[in-house]
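Supplementary material to the annual report.
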Amino acid sequence: MGATLAERVIAGDPRAIARAISLIEDDSAAGADLVRELYPRTGRAYLIGVTGPPGAGKSTLVDRMTGELRKAGQTIGIVAVDPTSPFSGGAILGDRVRMAAHFGDEGVFIRSMATRGHLGGLARATSDVALVLDAAGKDVVIIETVGVGQDEVDIVRTADVSIVVLVPGTGDEVQALKAGIMEIADVFVVNKADRDGADRLAQSVAAMLSLQAFQPDDWRPPILKTEATTGAGVPEVIAAVDRFRAHSEAQQAIRRRERQEYRLRDLLSHRFLQLAEQELAPGEFQRLVDGIASRRIDPYSAAGEIINRVRRAGPA
Ligand SMILES: Nc1nc2c(ncn2[C@@H]2O[C@H](COP(=O)(O)OP(=O)(O)OP(=O)(O)O)[C@@H](O)[C@H]2O)c(=O)[nH]1
Ligand SMILES: [Mg+2]
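Predicted assembly:
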């Protein structure tokens, strides 16, 4: 008898991992079944979130970090959440470059995911993909996202450690502030330190941090300069992650619990919506929307009507 897909994932078979991720990306029932089977085997991997503006050098940095972690004997899973369409060049080219660097290394699994086309929500799909890599025995799972939208912030928020990558002279620093990613940083990286303005940027991040009140025992996010293309400063990034990990074991437990709560709430609202859509007649949802627009019904009553319908339908 052949091994099931879950068994093959747990054994670390790269083709099974790829297949599992596709099932999850499709938001299929088979994907949900798979997560169910894999779940008891998860919780061991350390999740590193890497975010920052487009072109900051995140992928280059992740690649270098992967090299360092491999030297230390760690196995790595990488999920690159790419904002471009799956058919445009960016993600695929980036993957190819990295594939070349780690080609033939069974200890590294790389997958990019498009941000579009996730009916079930991008944050959920990403978390589930991370679960697959965790179950497959990867010691570290790195999630790369472009820090632009709430979705991406949500993804990074759920990592064990969040690295925010900034670059000098792009004006993106301000944008990063706006997106609220500054507050989620456990480690700041000023990449492209070979460029003018790196010191100035590091200073302005330090100035911003100095406005926050840190207690003596609090983790104070370090600001590290890197040149990802040459790998300069990257061992220091890994060291900072290790320090963070050792510093905040209690914090980590809290964060993991928050992650579970976020996921449960998110899954529940997704499932409830699915259920509601099943219960309503075709076009009825749109009719309710029209009704709200034309003031025939208010939004609270419309929502109440839908909830009552689901209640009457009984348990799913
Ligand atoms: N000068 C310089 N260039 C760098 C450095 N790190 C990365 N780059 C270059 O910056 C460009 C973008 O690098 P990526 O690693 O693809 O950046 P990214 O943040 O992953 O980009 P997206 O995923 O498209 O948002 C590439 O041409 C890199 O070679 C650096 O430290 N110095
Ligand atoms: Mg990238």
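The chain has a mean pLDDT of 85.
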